Amino acid sequence: LACGGFHGTFYDLDTIEALGLCVQLGLTAFTSLIPYSLSVATFLVFWAMDREKWTGFFRTLAIGLVLVLPLSAMTYYYDWFVRPQMMVVSVGKIVEMKQTYPNSLADKYGISMEQILNKKPMSMSKTKLTAQIDSLETSFQADIDTCGLLLSILPDTLASKAYDCYRLKRIGVVYQYAVHPAASEDSLMYIAHTELYQHAFGAWETSNELQRHKQEYFGRTLNTGCIYIAYILFAFLGYLLRYKPIKKILAVFAILIVAACIYHEINSLVQGYAKKLNTESHQIVDDTYKEIDGIRESKEQEMNAETQLE
Questions:
Q1: For the segment 100-114, what is each residue's pLDDT rounded down to a tens digit?
Q2: Separation between Cα atoms, residue 216 and residue 210, nearest integer Å
Q3: Neighbours of 167 (CB within 10 A)
Q4: Cβ proximity of 274 and 2 under 8 Å
Q5: Are 163 and 169 in contact (CB under 8 A)?
Q6: How much is the average pLDDT of 160-182?
Q7: Where exactly are the transmembrane stretches of this chain (predicted)?
């Protein structure tokens, strides 16, 4: 099931490494499926209750929390502390197997794969991930404000073209323009085609990076939150449906639906995890080349500056 996401890479692993990857896939599926399993168990327990008073319902609900709390704590620990490290190890192993990593260039410019991996959202601790999200949001808002300020300097026609061309509406920039522009035509063209472009491009890059970090944060908190939502929702559902004469039919349908969801979720989770490992392994190589290009450009600028001084 999972091997298809690796396009043959899985078969290149040693036996122990392949087993380790299978364990990762299994743990990922297990923690994500806890809410589904819990929902079925909770529904059946509360559906089978004989007591009709709500005091009995809330007493059973409180007792059930004693079991739910350890499950949620285990899921939280795995998603925030275990899974990120396992992802880093797996991605690094896949990059090595594909032999696409520019080792010689990376060594030449003092770049290690660990440095690149540590910058990825998947490897960050909760504190670092939260701080990075706050930093990106601040940077994004600064670019948005600057884009709005630059637009307010431009005349209507030029501002409208830049607004549409740079898709500023999609990132939340409010359209505005200068009724009587004070700058010269050359300055206005420079603002529209250079300064505004740079800040718009920066805003889009920051926005994409921010979304990646937020998705990582959401993915790590989703399973824990779903455990409590599923427990409370199916407790009420099971308790209320016991009054209905068609409760057996409804219960069978509910279990069948949940079973179908679990099967679909297992398939999508494992395939998604495998795809993420592959995507991240490609991204590691791309990010390394970007780091190399950045170092090259900075060195060229330093050499040009030294030449001009001479």
A1: 777 777 777 787 777
A2: 10
A3: 12
A4: yes
A5: yes
A6: 87
A7: 29-49, 56-78, 222-241, 248-266
| Residue 258: count of CB within 10 angstroms of its CB | 17
What dihedral angle (degrees, nearest 10) is formed by the CA atoms of 123, 98, 279, 77?
Answer: -30
Nearest partner of 232 among 55, 72, 42, 52, judged by Cα:
42
Structure tokens at 75: 């899921």
Query: Does the pLDDT at position 82 exceed 80?
Result: yes
% helix, strand, coil for the chain, step of 5: 85, 0, 15
Cβ–Cβ < 8 Å for 251, 43:
yes
pLDDT tens column, 228-239: 988 888 888 888
Rounded to two decimals, the pTM is 0.70
Q: Rounded distance, CA 21 to CA 27, Å? A: 10
Could you give the C-alpha distances from 236 to 58, 76, 232, 239, 259, in angstroms and in order? 10, 25, 6, 5, 20
Whose tokens are 């994409």? That residue is 208
User: Is it the case that residue 36 has pLDDT exceeding 90?
Assistant: no
Distance, first Cα to last Cα, the chain: 64
pLDDT of 52 above 70: no
- Domain containing residue 32: 3-309
Rounded to whole angstroms, what are the CA distances from 294 to 56, 166, 237, 241?
Answer: 66, 25, 57, 63
Contacts (Cβ under 8 Å, ≥6 apart) of 200:
143, 147, 162, 166, 167, 168, 171
Q: Would you say 191 and 35 are in contact if contact means Cβ atoms under 8 Å apart?
A: no
Per mean pLDDT, which range of 258-262, 280-284, 288-292, 295-299 is the poorest?
258-262
Interacting residues of 39 by C-beta distance below 8 A, sequence separation 6+: 230, 231, 233, 234, 258
Cα–Cα distance between 153 and 150 in angstroms, integer?
A: 5
> 18 is written with which tokens?
């392949």
